């Protein structure tokens, strides 16, 4: 951990293993559902983070990138989990046919890559994760966007 503020936590991620460890740490701190928006350029680690989080939550099947399917659903222990990749979406109206009503379940864990492409069609984020390149590694910044998100960040910052 690098630094901590009331509503945000930053991490240095020197390699993919560190990205996976952050995903596992966030998963281990969950006590409820959560909506996480994942921001960052191509290759910054969004899918690696999501894969680690979902695996830690107990998804027993292979967690694949939803780049072409747009959405993948999983049973994560006793709760539903959804992983969306909206990179290929040009207009939020294209999401109507996906049946995103299930994302509103308060017990669900929802991970959304490229959320800016689904504005207005997605549930509000509890946490936003921004990943970016930092030398040969990555940098992660988690920001709370709700009381539920703040509780999570306080737990992982300990």
Describe how the helices and strands are arranged.
Blueprint: E1 3-4, E2 8-13, H1 16-29, E3 34-39, H2 46-56, E4 71-76, E5 79-85, E6 109-113, E7 127-134, E8 137-144, H3 147-156
Parallel strand pairs: 3-6, 3-7, 5-6
Antiparallel strand pairs: 1-2, 2-8, 4-5, 7-8
Describe the overall structure.
With 158 residues, this protein is α/β, with parallel strands linked by helices. It has three helices and eight strands; from the N terminus they run E-E-H-E-H-E-E-E-E-E-H. The protein has helices at 16-29, 46-56, 147-156, and strands spanning 3-4, 8-13, 34-39, 71-76, 79-85, 109-113, 127-134, 137-144. It has an eight-stranded mixed sheet with strand order 1-2-8-7-3-6-5-4. The longest helix has 14 residues, at 16-29. The relative contact order is 0.24. Residues 1-5 have low confidence and may be disordered.
Which features would summarize this protein structure in a list?
alpha/beta; disordered N terminus; globular; eight-stranded mixed beta sheet; 8 strands; 158 residues
> What is the chain-wise order of helices and strands?
EEHEHEEEEEH
Beginning-to-end CA distance, first to last residue: 10 Å
Shape descriptor reads globular
Number of E strands: 8
Strand-residue fraction?
A: 25-35%
Rg, alpha carbons: 14 Å
Computed structural class = alpha/beta
Q: Work out the helix count.
A: 3
Mean pLDDT reading: 88
Main beta sheet: 8 strands, mixed
List unreliable stretches of 5+ residues. Answer: 1-5
Helix content: 10-25%
How would you classify the quaternary structure? single chain
Strand order of the largest sheet: 1-2-8-7-3-6-5-4
């Amino acid at each position: 951990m690098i630094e901590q503020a009331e509503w945000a936590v930053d991490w240095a991620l020197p390699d993919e293993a560190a990205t996976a460890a952050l995903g596992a740490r966030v998963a281990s701190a969950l006590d409820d559902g959560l909506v996480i928006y994942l921001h960052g350029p191509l290759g910054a680690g969004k899918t690696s983070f999501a894969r680690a989080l979902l695996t830690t939550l107990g998804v027993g099947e292979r967690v694949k990138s939803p780049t072409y399917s747009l959405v993948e659903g999983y049973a994560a222990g006793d709760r539903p989990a959804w992983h969306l990749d909206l990179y290929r979406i040009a207009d939020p109206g294209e999401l109507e046919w996906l049946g995103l009503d299930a994302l509103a379940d308060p017990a669900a864990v929802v991970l959304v890559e490229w959320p800016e492409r689904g504005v207005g069609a997605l549930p509000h984020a509890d946490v936003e994760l921004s990943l970016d390149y930092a030398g040969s590694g990555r940098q992660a910044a988690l920001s709370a966007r709700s009381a539920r998100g703040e509780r999570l960040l306080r737990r992982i910052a300990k």
